[in-house]
Amino acid sequence: MAAGATTRDFYDVLGVGRDATAPQIKAAYRKLALRWHPDKNPGSHEAEEKFKEAAEAYAVLSDGEKRARYDRFGREATGGFGQAGFDPTIFGDFSDILGDLFGLGGFGGGQRGGAGSPGADLRYDLELTFEEAAFGVTRTVEFPRLESCAACSGSGGAGGKPPVPCRTCGGAGQVRFSRVERQRSLEVRIPAGVDTGARLRLVGEGEHGRRGGRTGDLYVVLVVAAHAEFRREGAHVLAEAEITYAQAVLGAEIEVPTLHGSEKLAIPAGTTPGKLFRLKGKGIDRLGARGRGDHVVEITLHIPKASELDDERRALLARLAEIEGKPVKEERGVLHRVKDLFAG
Q1: What are phi and psi of 8, to 5 degrees?
Q2: How big is the CA angle at 253 (ends 249 and 256), to the nearest 5 degrees?
Q3: Which residues contact 289 (CB under 8 A, 6 or more apart)?
Q4: How do residues 223-256 score in pLDDT, each as one tens digit?
Q5: Which pLDDT score is estimated for 162?
Q6: Residue 10, domain member (yes or no)
Q7: Is 210 within a domain?
Q8: pLDDT confidence bin for 335, thresholds 50/70/90
Q9: 44 touches 80 (CB < 8 A)
Q10: What is the DSSP letter of 72?
Q11: Full-prediction pTM beyond 0.85?
Q12: Does 38 reside within a domain?
C-alpha cells in the first residue's frame, strides 16, 4: 500500500455513519480539513497523511455514484484515489470547502493571490468514447476566454502606466476574443480509467485577471458515451454472450469480444442463463492504481423463432420432446393447410 492510501473504512475516516447525509459528510470533512491541513501543520507528516486520507474519503462519499459503488463493492470499485502516482487534487474540486477556511476559490474565480481582480475559472465539457475513457487519450480542446490586453499588459493604462487609459481596451485591462477571431487551443492528456463526472483541472488556463490579478483555471469535465455492447461498473466491463440450447446442455467454447480483443470462453455443460463468467484483467485500467478490472460475461439463451427453424431442426426438436416425454404440437405448413381447405 502506497503512502497516502488508506485501508480504513471511508465512513470511519470522516467519523460519520453509513446513513450520513451529504451535508453531514461535508461538515465532517470541513472539520478534518481545518484540523489537518498542511498549512496549519507545517512539517508534520502525520497531518499530511491524515489530510490526504480525509480528502480521499470525501472524494468518494460526496459523489452519489461513487458512494453507491463503494457501498456495494468497497474500495476496489472507487479506483483508490490515494494510490501511488496519482495526484488526488487533479480530479474533483474541494475548493468549495477549503475556500472558506484558507481563502481558496472555485469555479467562480475566487481570489487566490494578485492585487487586482482575479480571472474567472472556465468549464469545458469533453465527450469521450467508451474506449478513450478506458485506455486514455490526448485530445485538443478549443475555447474562448478573456485575455490580458497586449497593449497595457492588463494594467489598464497604455504602456503599463496607470494614469493614462489604454486606447485598446479602454482601461478594462482585458480584450474579449470571439470564437472566430481568437481561441485558446490546448492538448489535454486524459489518463486511462476515467469515467463520467471526472474533472481535470488545468491551472492558469482560465480567464486572465484585471490589473495584475491571478489567472483563473480551466476545468475539463468528462462525459463518457455509452457503448453498444459493454457496460461499466468501476474498472469492470459487463457484457452478455448468447448461446444456444445445445451449447448450454452439452458445453461449448465460444469467442467473446472484449476491450482488448476477442477471447475464448469455455462454457461448461449444463450452463444456465444468467451464469456469470469472469475474464481476469480484461477490463479497464484502475485510475491512479495498478492493474485492470475484469471483463464479466453474463450468459443468455437464444430461443429461435419459428421462422428460423428448417424442417430438419424442427424434426429434431420434436424428437427430443418425445424422448423427454413432453411432445409438442406439430405446426403444419401452409401448403398442407391449403390442401385441407380444398379437400374439405
Answers
A1: -70, 155
A2: 115
A3: 79, 80, 83, 86
A4: 999 999 999 999 999 999 999 999 999 999 999 9
A5: 54
A6: yes
A7: no
A8: very low
A9: no
A10: H
A11: no
A12: yes
